[in-house]
Amino acid sequence: MAARRAESMDLSEIPPSTTTISTVAVQAGRAKIVLAVLRSSEWVRVRVHQMEPDLMDVGSNLEEALQLQREHEQLIARLKSKEDEVHQLLRTIDAQADQNRSQVDVHNAMADTLAEAWKDLNDKLAYRGTLLEQSVGFHQSAQDLASSMEQAQKNFSKVPLATDVETAQRLLDQHLDMKNSILETSKATLDMGQSLLDQIKEMGMHADFANLHATTAACYGIEHLLELLHDRRRHLEELWNQRKIRLEHCLQLCQLDQEVNKILEWYRGVGNNYLQNTELGNSYLEAQHIQQDHNQFEAHAREVQESMLGLLRTADGLLRRASVDAEGIRQRLIAVDREAESFSNRLDNRRKNITMAVAFFRLAETALNKLGEVEFQLNNMDLPRNSAELAEQHSRLSQAIVDYSTEATHEGRLLLERVSSTDQGADGVRRKMDELLTKCTLLESLCKARRAEAWQRSQEYLTYQEKYNSLQTWLLQIGQNIVSRHNSMGTSLASAKDFLEVHEQLDEDIRDKNAELSALSAAASRLVQSGDQAGQQAADKARDIEHQFQRLQRVVETRIQLALMYVSFHRLAQQLSSNLDALEHIVRSETEDLQEITDTAVQNLREMFSNTRHIFDDLNLKGNEFLQNASMITDDSSLDMRGPVQTVERILSDSRFSSVVNYWEAWEQHVISSKQFKSQWHQFVQEARR
């Protein structure tokens, strides 16, 4: 078809011996076509003498394309009205054939040629109509696309970010839907433009030389518009991605805010409600059940704490991006962190109270059982009332009463000192203490023979003996017993802190005994001066117990020094682990769009890494110091250092720090490279647009 259309326009094949037998001129607006009907001896052809606009001119915008289409349709309609003239020519040729039978074949050929030429002309004009229809469709689609992109760009800058999860998700969905819609429209528009361009080029390949310029101009106009659409879409894609990142970060912030509120509500609701319950039980069994429930709650509280740490890392990640302002969320997270720390301290205090309550009820119930045995012996003792044997038995049982009850009453007093005097949760402890003390008082009153024997001794000796027995009982039942029972620092920060707290309290109690030791020494000196036969023995016993207290104090002080180092080591280990977790999270999660991380964020991360290295160095110093001091202990055979030493050695030998350092250095270099590439690319784009 294109070859035939080109044939009808190829004037190079028309011999010069032709005659114009008719001219057809049609005009519609700026559109104009002048046709010449040419005749030679053997054929009749229709030649386009003049056509405006050119066949290839399809308009450079929608308005032009529509105008050309309207004018073309009018031109076709008017040209159709000229068909009668062509038909008249055909009738004339037929009439001539009838008059001259010898030329009938020639005339028939002329008629066929004229009819074919007219048909080719109409096909050509119909093809132009198709091009114009495609041009209108393409320009209309391009205009709609441009309008959509302009509206989208306005939305990017005008539509505010959301403040809740539902709205943030809806805005993000709308943004993605808008992008997909525009991309689909863009693809359809570009396909239409490319199809129009291909058809013009195809038609131009069969046009004569005079139409080459028009073909080139038409192609250039469409290609230029396609390039503009490409450029605008690329620019919009950059804005799309920026907006998408902002919307995604906004959604993350809203979700983060939602999770923060949940944690705050948990601390202020579930957490506070739990801690308002200060019940410590009425017996050993009840206290154990309370302890089991507390352990379960504490495990859940640790999960909440881990969730909060995860939120902190997420907030830090968002703050590293230039596209969002998460400072408000960060401040709220800091507030949550403070509340969590306060809650953790209160929870730890509750744990210690429950632990002490369990220990107290166990000791108190054991003591009451033992005192019941003493009571049975006192009530069933068949000895003469004033006999030395009865006095000796009463003295022994009186000391047993003190021995059995001292540790329990000491634990109870420490516990009651920790809680408020108005705390009803400790009423069970108070009742058990009253029961124990009442039982001791009752049994002590039954030891009458001991008191009768005591009156036979001097008042000075009685004073001395009372002081000595009190100190001796405290030393054995409290001091040495605590040192013996609390003989390991454990393998965690919590156990190390408990160990330290117990020994700091014991150290304080030992110092409080100095006044009693001085009073005992003075009482022994008075016995010696009075010439009492037991004076020298009393002085020797006073010196001996003073030496035992001094040794106990040295052991406790050494333990405190070790525990301080051990607690400090564990705190450093926790800080190091937390920092390594944060750095590892960063280098593993921040793998895309590294060039978008702000310089301030990079600097903060470098400071964090530097701080982590300092913590690592301090950890090694503190750990080695602890190991060195632990190896020098010689006067504390009951202290078990195997667990703590192995824990310190294991932490010091951990290679995680080295691994994270390697990850960090590679990640930092990647960030630097990404930022350099972004800078170079931006410079390249700026220069390309000049």
UniProtKB/TrEMBL annotation:
<dbReference type="InterPro" id="IPR018159">
    <property type="entry name" value="Spectrin/alpha-actinin"/>
</dbReference>
<dbReference type="GO" id="GO:0005737">
    <property type="term" value="C:cytoplasm"/>
</dbReference>
<dbReference type="InterPro" id="IPR058157">
    <property type="entry name" value="Spectrin_met"/>
</dbReference>
<dbReference type="Pfam" id="PF00435">
    <property type="entry name" value="Spectrin"/>
</dbReference>
<keyword id="KW-0175">Coiled coil</keyword>
<dbReference type="InterPro" id="IPR051336">
    <property type="entry name" value="RhoGEF_Guanine_NuclExch_SF"/>
</dbReference>
<feature type="domain" description="DUF7799">
    <location>
        <begin position="138"/>
        <end position="249"/>
    </location>
</feature>
<dbReference type="InterPro" id="IPR056701">
    <property type="entry name" value="DUF7799"/>
</dbReference>
<dbReference type="Pfam" id="PF25101">
    <property type="entry name" value="Spectrin_7"/>
</dbReference>
<dbReference type="GO" id="GO:0019898">
    <property type="term" value="C:extrinsic component of membrane"/>
</dbReference>
<dbReference type="Pfam" id="PF25075">
    <property type="entry name" value="DUF7799"/>
</dbReference>
<keyword id="KW-0344">Guanine-nucleotide releasing factor</keyword>
<dbReference type="GO" id="GO:0005085">
    <property type="term" value="F:guanyl-nucleotide exchange factor activity"/>
</dbReference>
<protein>
    <submittedName>
        <fullName>Uncharacterized protein</fullName>
    </submittedName>
</protein>
<dbReference type="InterPro" id="IPR002017">
    <property type="entry name" value="Spectrin_repeat"/>
</dbReference>
<feature type="coiled-coil region">
    <location>
        <begin position="62"/>
        <end position="99"/>
    </location>
</feature>
<feature type="domain" description="Spectrin repeats metazoan">
    <location>
        <begin position="572"/>
        <end position="670"/>
    </location>
</feature>
<feature type="coiled-coil region">
    <location>
        <begin position="573"/>
        <end position="600"/>
    </location>
</feature>
